[in-house]
Batch of 2 targets.
Target 1
Amino acid sequence: MSEAPSPDPHLAPLPGELPLSSPGFAAVDRTVGGVCAALNVLGTLLILGLAVLVNVDVIGRAAFGAPVSGVPEIVSLSIVAIVFLQAAQAARAGRFIRSDALLRALARRAPRAAAWLDALWHAAALALIWIVAQASWPLFLKAWDRDEFVGAVGDFTAPVWPVKAVLLVGCGALMAQFALGLVRAVAAGLRRAP
Amino acid sequence: PAFAHEQLVTIVAGHPPVFRWVKHASQTFIPAVQAALEGSEHGLKFSEQYGGALAGVGEELEATEEGLAEIGLVSSLFDPSKLAIQNVTYVTPFVSADTAKISSMMDRLQAEDPRMRASWEAVNLEYLGCAIGIDDYLLMTDFPVERLADLEGRKIGAPGPAVNWLKGTGAVGVSGNLTTYYNEIKSGVYDGVIVFASAALPGKLHEVAPYITRMGFGGQYAGGLAANKDWYDAQGIAVKAALKDACTAYSEAYHADLDAAVAKAFEVMQGAGATVTDADAEMRAAWAAGMENNALEWAARLDAQGQAGSEILSLYMDAMREAGATPVRDWDKE
Amino acid sequence: MSPFEIGLLSLLAMAGLVMAGLFVPVALMLCSYIGVWALKGSPLLAGKLLALAANDAISSYFFGVVPLFVLMGFITAEAGLGRDAFAVAHHAFRRLRGGLGLATIGANAAFAAVTGISIASAAVFARLATPEMTSRGYTARFAAGVVAGSSVLGMLIPPSLLLILYALLTEQSVGDLFLAGVLPGLLLAALFGGVVITLAAVAPNFIGEGAQVREEEGPSPSALELFSLGAPIVLLIGAVLGGIYGGLFTPIEAGAVGCLAAAAIGLAKRRLTLAGVWRVLTETGLVTASICFLLIAAQMYSRMLALSGVPAEFGGWVATAEMAPIWIVLAYCTLVITLGAILDSSSIMLILVPLMLPVATGLGLDLVWFGIVTVIAVEIGLLTPPFGISVYVVKSTLGPEGPPLGEIFAGAAPFALAMLVALGLVITFPFLATALI
Ligand code: NA
Ligand code: NA
């Protein structure tokens, strides 16, 4: 492959990914990006922490007869936190799975229709994450009020509320990310044909 | 039979129907409810959601509390925080190997004692009964256990609450999962497990841990059937009575089935070459005496939350002693 | 509308929305929300179902270690161990058409002995193998498809999360099921190899330049060079397998230990930097998040579908059909594969296996064999659109720069067909599953 790669049609930005030349929007985008990146770092540290924890448990058990209590419980809680800490950054990096063949075909023939369709999908994503978040809020309150925990008293216990809080924060970041996409797609839909 | 009013009732369980307690929800409880309502005006049609189809193990309580299901086979064992006082049996081992007695006692206490009823009402549930009794927990090892010292440094897998039973024995308690015990013992990650006979046989644990010691940990209470309180309160007297009476039928059928399964399990495992021994009184006493009194810690934590942990502990222990049980250690009197 | 009709409609809606470009997890959530609303008549309850699933669906020890297996593979890639191994394979298979495809399948079979979940296999080899193949002239479609296809070995060759789930659902011995998975797993790996060789012969364009036998460019590597390239990865896999079977750690813990071992080898070879480790940690997080989010949404959807009674109704037809045993088994497999288009693996098993268990017992079927049949049929669904989780994992790992989803599904299709053949063979020759027990 000596020649420069030709522009790949399936790499062209979708309407929800089109750049938007508004300073206000750029500032919001940067802020959301910063939040997503910060959550991402926390999630990454949590994965690293799990890797260390399981190894300490294995070595402690095999070499010293001293396993770490509560590893299964910690792992079960952490995976939920990891997912919601990283979800917004994953969405930002275009890792949310979608089949874009129809959108791209439409974008070639009727770009504004494609933009409005993509706007609809971003609005749907926004609405559903909102539903999950607002229905999860009472679950968080319950976990907080009742001191819900996992594990067994006397061996190991861990409170559940931090993970429920992370879930809410993660939903918030996801909503912000989908809102940015919605604005981009709507702007593309309003744009006059070149 | 046609009813003037028939409502659809979702019943949920995290375990699949091969588990005896789910099987009898389907094959004993539901038919008994329907038989009781036959000829009346109000009928119930059941949508049975087992094995995690709607809610997984430990999620039954919230699914029923929130109203996604009307009735749930709620496992207090897997929800030790919301149904903390129901776990009283797991903090008091060495009380009784008579599972049916423990089950009927727990059903009775939860029907009669206002403090236990309150714990269900706090999570918007009405306890119906149908106690899930677990048969006498055993020690199954890949080495013979003749005295407590044999356990020194050995890694023993156990369900979460039973890890506490191993503290003070010299053994290393490892929190484990029934489904992977076989492979863990086979490869040598564990040297043994704490498990009950009716689950040991299907998992073929005797193949890898052929030394079975009846240590006397005792039978346990793992949960029961509960209904969403709002839904239950809206039912007529006939439906309410049908639900609670069906639990009597459930308890009889479940425990008869369980006893038969336990007898068969021992027979088959022994037939396959496993060695079954009863720990002598001395070893049991030594084990129990060496343990930390986890029940007191458990009770103190509940007391601090205003849940009458100490009172429930005494209530349960007194009730069992009155019913003829002779605890190896009186957890409540220390 | 009856619950059954609502459920059926949701199947169509789900497929339509995915094809129209809605994010797959959002399509699942939307169908679930509207479905439960319609079934229970309450948007409040519908929201609660979504929230409970979001909180609980992946909160398990088994799922929780997935990122650690992915991380182990990514560290291996970052340290260049994968590239070295593929250089060796490239040399060893230079006279074989589609050689690197065969190497990928073999490597996946070896990794399957370490991990119990296909998601991990798909993510790891999308990063390890796909770039190596495309850089040597294989088509992106094939390079991604062979990874998605061979990832299914992860749940057939022990350890296997699906076999553990089946054991739980049927009270069968996990030990027996793991042994039963060995021969069908190897058979499937061989069939996959056959697919690659056949494609190279009859449809070379599907594979690309990799389908050609190529002369060595430059000087041939010496035996010592080949050894030093291949030894680290053999050491890594050997250490992890040795630890599992030597009783040092459980298969669930193997991913974490593998991370440690891979990092140690990478550091010893001075191939791993702190920045590199951080990069793969981040990458692991993104892949984990996008896939687990998908699995959460899939659980929401399957819970809605369970409430609608659609799978139970279909299962009931099969279970009560007056047919010869073989036809019941075939009807069951057809149903499993059909549901596999839409539902995730564990949901299908949770719903259908308990329904079929009394039937299988009544017919006197060997329940261990039936488990292997079930798992192979269920795993075909990992590769079929619109909901094919292995394909999604490959796509998510390769990112927006990777081939489009449709291309990966196309690349995986020949392997899905090979699974059908394997399924037929295991049904016809039950000893494939039972011989080792
Ligand atoms: Na495997
Ligand atoms: Na599929």
Target 2
Amino acid sequence: MQPFITLRSAAVPFARANIDTDQIIPARFLSRPRAIDHGQFLFHDLRQAPDGEQRPDFPLNRLHWRDARIALGGRNFACGSSRESAVWAMYDHGFRAVIAPSYGDIFANNSVKNGMLAVVLPRDAVDALMAEAEATPGAEIDIDLPAQTVTSAAGTWSFDIDPYAKKSLLEGLDELAFTLTHESDIAAFEHRMGRDNR
Amino acid sequence: MSELAPRTLFEKIWDSHRVLDREDGQTLLYVDRHLVHDGSAPAFELLRQRGIKPRAPERVFATPDHYVPTDTRERDAITDDRHRGMVDALERNTAETGIRMFGLKDANQGIVHVVGPEAGLSLPGMLIVCGDSHTSTHGALGALAFGIGSTEVAHVLGSQTLWQRRPKTLRITIDGTLGTGVTAKDVILAIIAAIGAAGATGHVIEYAGSAIRGLSMEGRLTLCNMSIEAGGRAGMVAPDETTYAYLKGRPFAPAGHDWDRELERWKRLPSDPGAVFDREVTLDGDAIAPMVTWGNSPEDALPITASLPDPAAEPDPERRAAILDAFEYMGLTPGAPLESVMVNRVFIGSCTNGRIEDLRAAAEVARGRRVAQGVVAWVVPGSAPVRRQAVEEGLDRIFTEAGFEFREAGCSMCLGTNGEIATPGERVASTSNRNFRGRQGPGARTHLLSPAMAAAAAVTGHLTDVRALMAEG
Ligand code: SF4
């Protein structure tokens, strides 16, 4: 996993509340192996019409936002299914951070596991960032994870983050390898459990 | 911590699964039961790349559900290479790692969240995970059960543990008596309509109150299933006599002396009097009517007697825009009565409503009636055992005589990953759990409702208050 420390990038707004993971990646693409570029499936059915024609007004199709690495989401962003491919699609498209008032819990977990930062900011802050992005498409935002701040021309906001998620992101932590350093604790737990069950 | 401090059901299960606590607030939890399905290939691949083997394969059970066809049990009949590949991968991965799988022709096959409880694999007090958001279903047995992503599935396979930060607790109390034609599906839709699709984000829900106690095990499974649609991390119901009666004699449930010992433990699980929840919500069970959704979020639910909202009357601009968007996608007219909405297809099944009681309720409405002209109606049992039971009770005949298709077990049209989808613009009355855009196929329009309400829509050709049909007899 690539560490995440700081990021400066344009931010692309996805303004609606309750954008679900079926929108982020439709179910028919879930049988693709991880090694395949999932960026091509990102918002597939919103981004293009059924005949395959790109919808020019969809944010990802707008020139200033094509290379954006920060996504701005509405309330309850990425709610719905546990499909990790929702994160893979965003990551492969180039996104390294999302900023939203709230997330589907499983998406937020999956995001950290893949090195993509999911920042929670109050709704008015996200609204201000979205308004700025609409007013000046391509305007850049700075995210500083060690300092836990988001800065744009519209202002600076601090955000909270779980210390463990922060550490994982900063170090690009391999969680399974880390957990297995606690193997003796797991074995001791299993031993206790076996004894209690006799 | 004092043993005497009153604890919630959730806290008791959390405490008994702590392997270690870190100072930064993370806890390593031990997983009792891990369920995998045919979407789990990426997790096995991750593990393989690392050269790590499952730590406790005897705690893991597998069944294919998302990619299996429901018109046949023949694997070779799966024409899509990718779909067949997912089913094959599960078979290969479980065989290589010594994990028990209930394959396509196994007597226990089915949707993973129907299979776990029904086989007696999901038990009170357990910590259960699965790479699927509707794992919350299993909480109905008094377990702590939640969905995880692929990386976490690999982590659990490799270590039998998971890092978690302790979630908050929310108790939803519903007292009263549910009216005729009102089911657990209506209760959960009413809850989501009341608290919103993110109403329980970051919380584990415990459902309590006399209306919940009065639900059958099947009803509780439906209720907990859709906790995720309320944003909840998990949903649970304290175990009681209903739970024990349901579990006794199940193939993998403890038996004999083990049963007695476990039962003693289970009886200590319910939340202690005076246990404190971070939040409390109360709803009146008597006031709940049969519900149906009209939009693209499960929170867009109304009693069937209502009319569609009028966007012009909505003060919040964000909400107004969302309603207009939904109406456009769903092809609906503001202010029209819900009962005037015509349907093209009916889907009765899924991990929400694919159990025997659901099929019985639908059959009760279908009996002696005919599916309306031009409507295609499917009944897809949630598992092979449910299907067998339905056949034994003659429900299959009631359905087929009424013009429904009675199919084999699987997820089918809930998500359509096996290719069973509606065509663009088709309107589906569905007993599944998500009405998202494109969920049942690109352009498909989903209305969520209970099995009896779905059967009512099938025979009338439009969304219908099932209570009117029940009164006809
Ligand atoms: S029935 Fe639907 S919600 Fe349930 S596991 Fe299958 S696809 Fe997921």
